[in-house]
Amino acid sequence: MKIGMQVWGSDGDIRPMIALGAGLKLSGHQVTISIASVDNKSYAGLCAMAGITMLKKPEKIEAVLDGMAGKNGRIARTPAIMLNLLEQTLHPYIKELYEGANYLCERNNMVIGHFSCYYLKIAAIKHNKPYAAIHYWPGFIPSDIEPPIGSLNIASGVSKVLWSAYMGSMDVMLKKKIGQLFLDEGLPAIDHIMTGAWMSDKLNLVACSRVFFTEPKDWVLTGKTMITGYMNVPEAAEFCEFTRELKEFLTRRGEHPVFITLGSSIQMDPERGMEMLVESAKLYKKKVIIQTASKKYPENTFLHNIYFSARMPHKEIMPFCLAAVHHCGAGTSQTATRLGIPSVPLYFTDEQKSWAERLYKLGIASKPLDYGKFTPQQLADNMKEVINSVKIKDRAMELSAKMKKEDGVAETIKALEEFYRISMVS
């Protein structure tokens, strides 16, 4: 089968889709993936190693991420961050993104899109091609019986009211621009962004571990939405060579470091963010690796107890570390958990907050800190708490063993192949 895939976003959005593409290739399918990287990272080498054809459309995204999280020490709220990101990195490129979507639909039997790729859903409808949406977080998928993530666990009737309010707030922010392409292509107006644009009408696969979330009963009954497990890039698809300096730092004094990464989120506040992280590391006093985002702290350099690293696959560096301070993106949260590495949550957005709270409730993390309110002393104290807790370490190893029994890529492929088979006979 020829399969087209499309994804927009950052590392945490793109890597799981490449992992799925690699799995589909190994299952005998021909895969083409169209990638739009908001921070213009290249995935050509990873796709080549995975044996899948890559298109980069658009070729480059012009955006100023610095300051998106706030300015002059004032941190922006999640809706403002989301709107700013879409205004800079998605809406101006919709023509090229839609061209890429049509290209995929013209040349493939089935198409699979990251949930944000509503333009691929439109192209699939126009070309009459089976379309499945991939999600990483259940928080954008409504349920008739369970309230939105972060709400109190209340009666199902009230849950519907909460979901209605939540969907309405998203529509106010996004429906006018996102819904316009449906109208321009002669399709009916969408009722809601979350259900009409971001969800497939037939199959939605949530690529997250059941260690973190399970399906509401109404998802199971409809059969249109299911959790399939975290999709991890296969070991054979990439290789990371540590620098001589990093190797020396890891072996120095026989002490394992704490790893600090705020992923792509740090690019929204790089200079202030790095200063806060450096101060936290100094207060911690033991070895720390910080994934740098500032020219003031160049890659592969040292400062006291700190080594500043380039971006690298988390699964390569985390096994050498005692704990990971991170922003609680879906990918980083699950990578750390799968590796048995305790977390020190430092979140930016509401979605990240929900992952942070799950890590904490599972007993594998310190109490989450809000990036807009934390102090270096608080972060240093949380680092010390986590590395000194036998209970947290034991629980992390327990959940690691449980998560490693899952195979998100295989489960996702099984669901996709069955979906295509049914689509061909119906």
Number of helices: 16
If strands are numbered along the chain, what order do they take across the biggest sheet?
A: 3-2-1-6-7-8-9
Number of strands: 16
Taking pLDDT < 50 over at least 5 consecutive residues as the criterion, the unreliable ranges are none
Percentage beta strand: 15-25%
Main sheet specs: 7 strands, parallel
**Which shape, going by the Cα principal axes?**
globular
Q: Report the CATH C-level class of the largest domain.
A: Alpha Beta
Give the N-to-C terminal Cα separation: 18 Å
Describe this structure in words.
The chain has about 425 residues and is of the alpha/beta class. It has two domains: about 1-230 and about 405-425, Glycogen Phosphorylase B (Rossmann fold), CATH 3.40.50.2000; about 245-405, Glycogen Phosphorylase B (Rossmann fold). Helix content is about 45%, strand content about 15%. The protein has 16 helices and 16 strands. The protein has helices at about 10-25, 45-50, 80-90, 95-105, 120-125, 155-185, 195, 215-220, 245-250, 270-285, 315, 330-340, 350-360, 375-385, 390-405, 410-425, and strands at about 1-10, 30-35, 55, 70, 75, 110-115, 130-135, 205, 225, 260, 290, 300-305, 305-310, 325, 345, 370. The strands form three sheets. The chain has a seven-stranded parallel β-sheet, with helices on both faces. It has a seven-stranded mixed β-sheet with strand order 12-13-11-10-14-15-16, with helices on both faces. Strands 4-5 form a two-stranded antiparallel sheet. Helix 13 links the parallel strand 15 and strand 16. Helix 1 packs across helix 16, helix 4 crosses helix 5 (about 120-125) and helix 10 crosses helix 14 (about 375-385). It is globular. The two termini are about 20 Å apart. The model has no long low-confidence stretch (mean pLDDT about 90).
